[in-house]
Amino acid sequence: MPKILIIEDEAAIRRVLTKILSEENESYEVEDAEDGMIGFEKIKNNDYDLVLCDIKMPKMDGVEVLEAVKKIKPEIPIVMISGHGDMETAITTMRMGAFDYISKPPDLNRLLNTVRNALDKKQLVVENKILKKKVSKNYEMVGESDAIDLIKVMVDKVAQTEARVLITGSNGTGKELVAHQLHEKSDRASYPLIEVNCAAIPSELIESELFGHVKGAFTSAVKDRAGKFEAADKGTLFLDEIGDMSLSAQAKVLRALQENMITRVGADKDIKVNVRVIAATNKDLKTEIAEGRFREDLYHRLAVILIKVPSLNQRREDIPLLVTHFTNKIASEQGTAVKKFSKNAIKLLQEYDWTGNIRELRNVVERLIILGGKEISENDVKLFASK
Questions:
Q1: Closest Cα to residue 35, out of 69, 77, 7?
Q2: Which residue ranges make up each domain of the chain?
Q3: How would you write the pLDDT of the chain (387 residues) with one tens digit per residue?
Q4: 4-aspartylphosphate is carried by which residues (predicted)?
Q5: What is the pTM of this model?
Q6: CATH topology assigned to domain 144-310
């Protein structure tokens, strides 16, 4: 049941607002407070889905309430109630983070629409937080080996900075997990992480994908389109498999990193962007530079911090933890009981040559869960996990 607090020093307005909201929707739980100080104390001690707050009040005015609430519970939408002489202040409060404002005396339709929209926004914020936690779990780095512990320490140190990071490692080692952790632990976490797989995009389209294009820039450009740099503004751009990027695109990425400016394909207008770039590759970029396939100046721009993700063969002691992690995850996804792996089964998995790294191990675990017995045995591993 949505819980709404009305902070208003005029008793008549409080009664009107309470009556309107109670009659409109019996599922609204409405409380009130006769001044800002009492209202703020209630907010500190209770969970509200929406606050309606007058601007001019004794003891603590609406602007002070707004400032104080945004510091302790920024997710609560606050709608300001303004008198005829408060319009300029009401607009100022919008810049400070108020959801909206309504005028006295309150217009019925305007009030109800504003309340519904504010509650919808609150619900979206809650859902986004839940989704973020789920996403964060999906990109959890599992392991207690020295190699993984070192990466976790580096991520914790680097995430809060604006330093660019180059993540290296073979396919399937989990480079994207490191990128997601860097973003989730950064000050940019409330803004998007935009991923681009440079190897999956044809070279003739990569510039349009990254920088966007204007209508008519090429045959299929039927309308203006923003690129990934613009989409990632204030957030993080993850350039996966950057070693496969064309040299012309590399030159434009270099310019974007140097000047924080991009130009859409076919345009002559510069667009300012605020993006942190994290890159990853399975290639030896020093070799690519020597053979003329990668720009050295771009490499040095990207590789401020280097994080090398080890192969699974280099962290075999993490296999028991990874098997447990994947077993629980697969059981949850499929709605089935969690199967156990015998000690001998785990030991045999630790002896395998994991050329496909974590990705291969995950596939093998799923195969064993589907085809193996109630407890996955050494024999199951020999039968179904063979190369």
A1: 7
A2: 3-135, 144-310, 313-384
A3: 889 999 999 999 999 999 888 876 667 899 999 999 999 999 999 999 999 999 999 889 999 999 999 999 988 999 999 887 777 888 889 889 899 999 888 888 889 889 988 988 787 766 655 555 555 556 788 999 999 999 999 999 999 999 999 999 999 999 999 999 999 999 898 889 999 999 999 888 899 999 999 988 888 888 888 899 999 999 999 999 999 999 999 999 999 999 999 999 998 889 999 999 999 999 999 999 999 999 999 999 999 999 999 999 999 999 999 999 999 999 988 888 899 999 999 999 999 999 999 999 999 999 999 999 999 999 999 999 875
A4: 54
A5: 0.66
A6: Rossmann fold (3.40.50)
Where does 270-341 have alpha helices with state H? 285-290, 296-302, 319-334
Identical fold for domains 3-135 and 313-384, yes or no, is: no
Q: Which two tokens stand for residue 209?
A: 């994908």
CATH placement of domain 313-384: 1.10.8.60
CA distances from 339 to 228, 329, 344, 381 (A): 42, 11, 15, 14
Which CATH class for the 3-135 domain?
Answer: alpha beta
